[in-house]
Write a structure and sequence with these properties.
With 191 residues, the chain is of the alpha/beta class. The chain is built from eight helices and five strands.
Length: 191
């Protein structure tokens, strides 16, 4: 990123939100593009990036096995992620937290972590409204976390995923490119 762009981002970040850090909690089913979008937002905002797949897989490796967390209400990786996010927020860093976030309880826990740290919380759901495209991505993607098991299309579609019942930003990766999704999220953060 050119230096003048970095300087402009630094100025916009310092001018917004009366100095409060922001927790951007990004959720959505596997293979919707949420990790790609979350990474882009974190990079552009120069925010900490907390990825639950990385944390959960590391915990499983340390314990000698990786256990699928589908169906757990608050798996250990999430609990660690919440505390890591709070640590970053308390030192004034913005945080982009990315996980499937399938249940109201997990969404509440992210929101509560942000509020506990005195941060503003922006919730984002990433969807892929084109089911054929979503399936193609699910079946063709290559995982970048060693030891993480790629869910099958059947596991993705059968996964418990409660509908959101509160306001959030929804970005549809079947319609918007990654940079457009990031732009929508950044605009919400900068108000």
């Amino acid at each position: 990123m050119p230096k003048q762009d970095v300087d402009l981002i630094d100025k916009r970040i310092s001018d917004r939100r009366d100095g409060k850090p922001v927790l951007i909690s990004i959720g959505g089913l596997p293979a919707t593009g949420k990790t790609t979008v979350a990474r882009r937002v974190a990079r552009e905002l120069r925010a900490a990036f907390v990825r639950i797949d990385s944390i959960g897989t590391a915990i499983g490796s340390a314990e000698g096995e990786f256990e699928q967390t589908n169906g757990w209400e608050l798996p250990p990786g999430c609990l660690v992620g919440y505390d890591v996010a709070v640590d970053q927020l308390q030192i004034g860093m913005d945080v982009v937290a990315e996980s499937v976030n399938p249940l109201r309880s997990s969404r509440d826990a992210w929101r509560d972590a942000g509020l506990r740290a005195g941060a503003r919380v922006v919730e984002v759901e990433v969807v892929c409204s084109d089911l054929d495209e979503h399936r193609r991505r699910a079946e063709g993607r290559v995982l970048d976390v060693a030891g993480l098991t790629k869910p099958t299309w059947e596991q993705i579609t059968a996964r418990e995923y409660e509908p959101w019942d509160r306001s959030r930003i929804v970005v549809d990766t079947a319609i918007l490119a990654v940079d457009e999704c990031a732009q929508v999220i950044r605009a919400a953060v900068e108000v």
